[in-house]
């Protein structure tokens, strides 16, 4: 057993804020947290001193397409390890590889490749390699609205189909976690029933649904909404639509892309005011260009040009982002959200959404040793992924 002890001045668990505690780590787990004098520290433990940094759980990104020049749809070990290694530098220690709408055979090939990677040793950090763990797959499409498809190719969209979903789930070998769909499409409600029955989180997104259509879908078990405000029927006071339903149903969790580009600040504030800090989840929607210079990239098979960090397709539509969750947290703090609440939205809330409370997104006994050491300016000073790191 390799024992490590983090001597932390300030910890956001983020259930609470703790001061001057030690975190004991054995291999890849947290085994104790407490005051120095009340904890049995193994004699040969490696000491990690976090005097000037803030220790928070590793970020959990449930909506990310790529980073470091690669897209998860490539689904090769090289592509997936590049994405995972790159985002780990920004504090993301676990993630859902997120697909975009593509022809079914292509999607199945990607799902199979990602599933194989998830099962492989490469999906685990090793002695000198900090890497984000791919926890599963988020299927963004293809059962989405043509009117609100964003950059998803029209030709790749599909009518809701239980047999096609089953095909995807088979290809994904039990690793699919979230299915994003448009609930107003014919057959969507039956698809929601089927997906919920298979244990998926059903997410509302890329949708032109009315308030009533969304309400019915929520009642059938669609309890999550992807990148709220983006690729949704707009809100107006007599046609509040999908946004009206998402904002007023307390049991629905809401993703937000807090990059300062996708959504204006007042919209983020409206979301916070109506959902509260326990129901908002920070996501990156990051693409291959994340952590890379401006230039030409792909999102799935879609050509994307990145200029000043903003990704658009040929028609000028936003095509994902180059956001990382460290910046998303920092951006929320700029909007006067408390740091502990901003951290919660990048850690505890997404972990809960995936049913991983207690294992991911929290600093607690029994949780995976995924830690981020933040400087006072909220940049990342160091990262530990399942006991590996910081360097
Ligand atoms: Zn999207």
Shape: globular
Give the count of helical stretches.
10
* H/E element sequence: EEEEEEEHEHEHEHEHEHEHEEEEHHHEE
Global structural class: alpha/beta
Helix content: 25-40%
Bound molecules: zinc ion
* Largest sheet descriptor: 8 strands, parallel
Distance between the termini: 19 Å
Mean pLDDT: 97
Strand content: 25-35%
The whole-angstrom Rg is 20 Å
Lateral strand order in the biggest sheet: 5-8-9-10-11-12-13-14
Runs in which pLDDT lies below 50 for 5 or more consecutive residues are: none
Number of strands: 19
Question: Which key terms come to mind for this protein?
Answer:
alpha/beta; binds zinc ion; single chain; 8-stranded parallel beta sheet; 6-stranded mixed beta sheet; 391 residues
Please characterize this protein's 3D structure.
57% of the residues are buried. Strand 10 (176-181), helix 4 and strand 11 (201-204) form a beta-alpha-beta unit. The strands form 4 sheets. This protein has an 8-stranded parallel beta sheet with strand order 5-8-9-10-11-12-13-14. It has a 6-stranded mixed beta sheet with strand order 3-2-1-4-18-19, with no helix packed on it. The radius of gyration is 20 Å and the shape is globular. The chain is an alpha/beta fold. It is built from 10 helices and 19 strands. Helix 2 (104-119) packs parallel to helix 3 (162-171), helix 5 (211-219) packs across helix 6 and helix 8 (325-334) packs antiparallel against helix 9. The model has no long low-confidence stretch (mean pLDDT 97). The site of zinc ion has 5 residues, from loops.
């Amino acid at each position: 057993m390799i024992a490590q002890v983090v001597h932390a001045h300030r910890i956001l668990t983020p259930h609470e804020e703790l001061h001057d505690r030690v975190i004991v780590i054995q291999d890849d787990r947290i085994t104790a947290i407490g005051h120095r004098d009340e904890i049995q520290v193994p004699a040969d433990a490696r000491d990690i001193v976090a005097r000037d940094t803030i220790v928070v759980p590793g970020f959990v990104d449930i909506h990310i397409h790529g980073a470091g020049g690669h897209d998860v749809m490539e689904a090769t070990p090289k592509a997936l390890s590049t994405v995972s290694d790159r985002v780990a530098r920004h504090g993301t220690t676990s993630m859902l590889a997120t697909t975009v709408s593509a022809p079914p055979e292509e999607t199945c090939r990607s799902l199979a490749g990602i599933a194989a990677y998830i099962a492989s040793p490469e999906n685990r950090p090793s002695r000198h390699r900090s890497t984000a763990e791919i926890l599963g797959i988020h299927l963004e499409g293809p059962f989405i609205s043509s009117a609100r498809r964003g950059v998803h190719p029209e030709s790749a969209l599909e009518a809701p189909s239980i047999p096609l979903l089953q095909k995807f789930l088979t290809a994904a070998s039990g690793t699919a976690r979230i299915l994003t769909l448009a609930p107003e499409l014919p057959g969507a409600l039956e698809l929601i029933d089927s997906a919920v029955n298979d244990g998926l989180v059903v997410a509302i997104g890329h949708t032109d649904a009315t308030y009533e259509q969304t309400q019915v879908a929520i009642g059938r078990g669609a309890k999550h909404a992807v990148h709220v405000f983006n690729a949704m029927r707009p809100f107006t006071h007599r046609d509040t639509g999908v946004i009206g339903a998402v904002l007023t149903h307390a049991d629905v969790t809401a993703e937000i892309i807090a990059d300062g580009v996708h959504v204006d600040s007042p919209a983020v504030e409206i979301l916070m005011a109506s959902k509260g800090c326990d129901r908002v989840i920070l996501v990156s929607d990051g693409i291959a260009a994340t952590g890379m210079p401006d230039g030409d990239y792909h999102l799935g098979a879609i050509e994307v040009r990145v200029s000043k960090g903003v990704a658009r397709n040929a028609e000028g539509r936003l095509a994902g982002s180059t956001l990382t969750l460290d910046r998303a947290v920092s951006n929320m703090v700029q909007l006067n959200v408390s740091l502990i609440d901003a951290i919660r939205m990048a850690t505890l809330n997404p972990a809960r959404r995936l049913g991983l409370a207690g294992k991911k997104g929290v600093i607690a006994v029994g949780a995976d040793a995924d830690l981020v050491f933040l400087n006072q300016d909220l940049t990342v000073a160091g990262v530990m992924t399942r006991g590996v790191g910081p360097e």
